[in-house]
Amino acid sequence: MAKIILITHQKGGVGKSTLAFNLAQSFSQSCSVAIVDLDPQGSLAQLESIVKNIEIYSYAINEEKVNAIEADFIFIDTPPYLTNHLSWLVNLADLIIIPTKAGVLDLMAIQATASYMYEEKVVDKCLIVLNMVKPNTTLTLDILVELEKLKEIDIAKNYISDLVIFTRSVLNQGVNRHLKAKKQIEQLSEEILLRLL
Question: Most buried residue among 26, 39, 119, 136 by CB atoms closer than 10 A?
Fold first, then answer.
């Protein structure tokens, strides 16, 4: 049975789709992988004709269709708001990744997502991932201190930097040509796998 990894946050602009794509690319090196794009913008669904090693499904999907997907791992990308689909998704998921930028507004927005996870009693499945981290700033440390106050929600040890290669990765079939980006995705993938085992 597939392991389902939900990537969600009620705030837009935190890199959910790009992170979902790069993690799926990383996992696809040794496993069968599918992406379900539930965002009505359909950013990832538009890649269906470009991406060869990952099955991509559009946002018109329900729990029964997700369960019918044959893959080792299914990454589900959600829209930038708390949708009415989220309840069955968080309960279906084996892991819920909450990507966030290291910013004050992002920290404020994550409270609503965290509150929802507490209400659904799924905080034990949640993992906050710092994404698009700016180099050489103390703000990241300040944000980490504040995120630690979200009791019972783990914070990933590995983070993703704010590198242009991540933005271009959807056209380049991932980040394999850039050593720093590749290493970050591989380390985060390994951390995620260890949580799922």
Answer: 26
**pLDDT tens by residue, 64-113:** 889 899 999 999 998 876 667 788 899 999 999 999 998 888 888 898 89
> Which homologous superfamily is 3-196 in?
P-loop containing nucleotide triphosphate hydrolases (3.40.50.300)
Question: Residue 176: helix, strand or coil by DSSP?
Answer: coil
* Whether the predicted pLDDT of 32 surpasses 80: yes
| Dihedral, CA of residue 114, residue 118, residue 124 and residue 129, to nearest 10 | 0
| Average pLDDT for the chain | 88
How do the domains of the chain map onto residue ranges? 3-196
Q: Return d(Cα 170, Cα 44) in angstroms, integer.
A: 9
Asked if 113 and 79 count as a contact pair (C-beta separation under 8 A), the reply is: no
Q: Between helices 104-119 and 139-147, what is the axis angle to 10°?
A: 20
d(CA 49, CA 159): 30
